[in-house]
Amino acid sequence: MLRLQGIAVSPGVAIGEALVVDNEGFRIPRRFLPRDAIDREIARLTKAIDETTAEINESRRRITERLGDDYGSIFSAHAQMVNDRKLRQELEELIRDRHYSAEYSVSRVLRRYAKVFQSLEGAYMAERANDIFDIEKRLLRRLLGEKREELAQVSSEVIVLARNLTPSETAAMKPEFTRGFATETGGPGSHTAIVAEGLGIPAVVGTGAFLSDVSGGEMVIIDGDEGLVILRPDEETLARYRHEVAEQKTLAAKLDELSDKACETLDGQRIQLLGNIEFPAETKLCLQRGVDGIGLYRTEFLFLTGDSIPTEEQHYAAYREVAAAMQGRPVVMRTLDLGADKLPLFPAPDDERNPFLGLRSIRLALKHVDIFRLQLRAILRATNDGDVRVMFPLVSNLLELRRARMVLADAMEDLEEEGVPFNRDIKVGMMVEVPSAVVMMERFVDEVDFFSIGTNDLVQYTLAVDRSNKDVASLYTSADPAVIRLVKMAIDAADAGGKPISLCGQMSGAPLYTMLLLGLGLRSLSVTPAAAPEVKRVVRSTTMEHCQCVAERVLTLESARDVKTYLREELSKLLPDQPI
């Protein structure tokens, strides 16, 4: 059994077989062969070894011609490794005796070899481990060929284990088959984490290297509450976590009973509870959870799940589906909110050394006005199908907001000239995600109809922490006093200007912060569908007076650790059975 500590980004516990996805995107299943397929499988292995040897020899020849024999000898060593008699014997034994597929046998044996080298001291030994990983990838490419499987093609329940997952890969996950996932890199607030929370699947990121310790098909536990990944758990650990899963199901059943009850405090304060969604299909879950509308529709995933820039009709079809499904409830559609580095369909920036401070979100949209206008046209057309609103992300100054509104006005004029109906009085909002936006809130209140605080980015930019970097991820927290003060400043400024304000970051969906946020003055929260019942439960269990006392106390604390400790104590008093 091996326990790995990472960063919890989506709560819950998942138990299941590992699906290992390496940097090449390979899926390496533990597939058992019928007896009459053994000889064919060994023939496949032999062919893969021969082709890999030829590939290595060609690499050796090219490198020798360019750099000389000393460099070419590296590949000579690789060729010797892949043709090692003992290695081939081990691989064939797994195929003959255990009926493993050639792919699984290669991965299992070579990763065990690499682990031995990694455990030895010295840089030279570590490099030998890298050599073995290189050989493994070469063999797998030959064996899998065109049979490489993407996450979208997974059709059985698995735990996904990867070095990292891109937004498009996470967007392609099927929640009915992906029980949970863990990645070696990444941090809280990353798009991978956001999607995990949206899908309601347990997830842990930033564990550090572990893929060499696991093979596909092995038992894995993901503890999304404690940030733990447990490989090959023993029976005692399995039994304990199975009991925890059963308790979670019992609590979930209790929470389901709240779906048709009002989200209001014990002393009668009504709180607007909205949903955050990635895909139109999630509206069904939002309605099941009894939300008052959609506070954040992340439209950027339309750009990530296809092979080309989405057309206006594709945009409109998705937006119309959401608007119609919500049956008159408000739907806030946020325009494209990703960096060019995450969007392969967009031209790569010339000098993007720091994507989080570069061309992304509203900046990217304003650089590609034709694509931006196309999206806005589709959003405007969807106003005929429901209470649709538009929201601009990552606005850092008044000029950006005014330029975005000008593009919106242009889109309106285009539609009017074409005789296409839409609601000209569409409500326009902006995300509050950077400190400069908070500082200038008293000016922004005259420019928009509503605000939504995006704490995922606000934390990142306030604390100067790359939210996807595991080495500094411990510094990334919504509990930092500076973040909490900025949230309060934004709420106070919006209230003073008479404009509604909500909060749609991960902070809003964590029951730990619910009383604090209400005490700071928020009356609207936008959360993932999975988080809605727990947040509603907290709201219905407290009073505004108590929440205000919690907020007053938190504003006197000096560290994130003290804030979290105090909030945990208060939540435990309120709901002793609530996972924290």
Tell me about this structure.
The protein has 580 residues and is α/β, with parallel strands linked by helices. The chain folds into three domains: 2-27 and 150-251, Glucose Oxidase, domain 1 (3-Layer(bba) Sandwich); 35-145, PtsI, HPr-binding domain (Enzyme I, Chain A, domain 2), CATH 1.10.274.10; 268-574, TIM Barrel (Alpha-Beta Barrel). It is built from 22 helices and 16 strands. The strands form two sheets. Strands 1-8-7-3-4-5-6-2 form an eight-stranded mixed sheet. The longest helix is centred in the N-terminal third of the chain and has 30 residues, at 38-67. It is globular and about 75 Å long. It starts with a strand and ends in a 6-residue tail after the last helix. 46% of the residues are buried. The mean pLDDT is 86.
Task: Describe the SSE topology.
Layout (H helix, E strand, L loop, with lengths): L1 E4 L1 E4 L2 E9 L16 H30 L1 H14 L2 H14 L3 H18 L3 H22 L13 E5 L4 H5 L6 E6 L7 H9 L3 E3 L13 E5 L4 E4 L3 H22 L15 E6 L4 H7 L5 E5 L13 H14 L4 E5 L26 H7 L1 H14 L4 E6 L5 H21 L9 E5 L2 H5 L1 H4 L5 E4 L1 H9 L17 H16 L4 E3 L2 H4 L1 H10 L3 E4 L4 H8 L4 H11 L5 H15 L6
Parallel strand pairs: 3-4, 4-5, 5-6, 9-10, 9-16, 10-11, 11-12, 12-13, 13-14, 14-15
Antiparallel strand pairs: 1-8, 2-6, 3-7, 7-8
Give start-end ranges of low-pLDDT stretches. none
Put simply, the count of helices is 22
> How many domain regions?
3
Largest sheet features: 8 strands, mixed
- Which fold does the CATH topology of the largest domain refer to? TIM Barrel
Task: List the strand order in the largest sheet.
Answer: 1-8-7-3-4-5-6-2
Radius of gyration: 26 Å
Strand content: 5-15%
Distance between the termini: 25 Å
CATH superfamily of the largest domain: Phosphoenolpyruvate-binding domains
Structural class: alpha/beta
What form results from the Cα inertia axes? globular
Secondary structure: helix percent = 40-55%
Would you count the extended β strands for me?
16
Overall mean pLDDT: 86
Binding site for Mg(2+): 433, 457
Keywords: Coiled coil, Cytoplasm, Kinase, Magnesium, Metal-binding, Phosphotransferase system, Pyruvate, Sugar transport, Transferase, Transport
Coiled coil: 35-62
GO cellular component, one term: cytoplasm
